[in-house]
Amino acid sequence: MLEARYELTLEKFRGPMDKLLELIEEQKLEITEVSLAQVTADFLAYTQTLERVDRGVLADFLVVAARLLLIKSRALLPNLELTEEEREDVKDLETRLRLYKEFKEGARELEKLWAKRKPMFSRPLFMNRPVVFYPPPGLALTKLVLALDKLAKTLKEALPEAQTVRRIVITLEEKIAELGRRITAGMSESFRSIALNRSREEIIVLFLALLHLAKDRLLHIDQSEHFSDIMISKPEASS
After folding, report:
1. N or C: which end of the chain has fewer CB atoms below 10 A?
2. Do 105 and 179 reside in the same domain of the chain?
């Protein structure tokens, strides 16, 4: 778990800290023979030789040290009665340490795979080969034609028929001419009656035509109050 360059030097052990933990967990080395104070002092002395302490190295040390402390406390105090909360804390610590160890082991396996320098794999069979249809051996032309015909019919049934939408183009000039004919006929009516049964687009263009003719004084418009109907009439002849 700790980087290989750091080796712990104790009275009865010399080597990486994760190896020390492994020996203790396998009961090949008694935890009571290991001084945790000496372990901590040795690591602190090691960090003082570094210009910058890597956070990963520090995290690894804390994990291993916590595991060693947990093992030693159980060895020294086997009959210690813990409260329910304390037991939950110990259980939570064990779970976290186990997960951390699994993640570290997984990271090592990924490093080994990456070191092989083969993150991608090619398919040489299809290199420089044109993409074409290779029918299976023994396929008759008649069967292929029937299959394609069946596929075409299936697609025709599945896809909705295309509907042609005829779009009517409404121009301002047309509506100006329409209102002009009404004026010539001497009409006098409301804008609402003219716009009746027309589309929204046509009503908008018709209204613009109305404003255009009113601006040029070719018709007279009157509105008694806001949002009321607009009355349209032929302008009075100027004296």
Report:
1. C
2. no
Q: What is the mean pLDDT of residues 2-19?
A: 72
136 lies in some domain: no
Task: Quote the pLDDT of residue 77.
Answer: 72
Number of domain units in the chain: 2
Query: What is the domain extent for residue 79?
Result: 8-115
Asked if residue 22 and residue 110 are part of one domain, the reply reads yes
Mean pLDDT value across the chain: 76
Greatest Cα pair distance, the chain, in angstroms, is: 126
Residue 1 is predicted with a pLDDT of 47
Q: Are residues 110 and 192 in the same domain?
A: no
Contact between 90 and 82 under an 8 Å Cβ cutoff? The reply is yes
**pLDDT, tens digit (0-9, with 9 covering 90-100), for 44-77:** 888 888 788 777 778 777 877 887 787 777 777 7
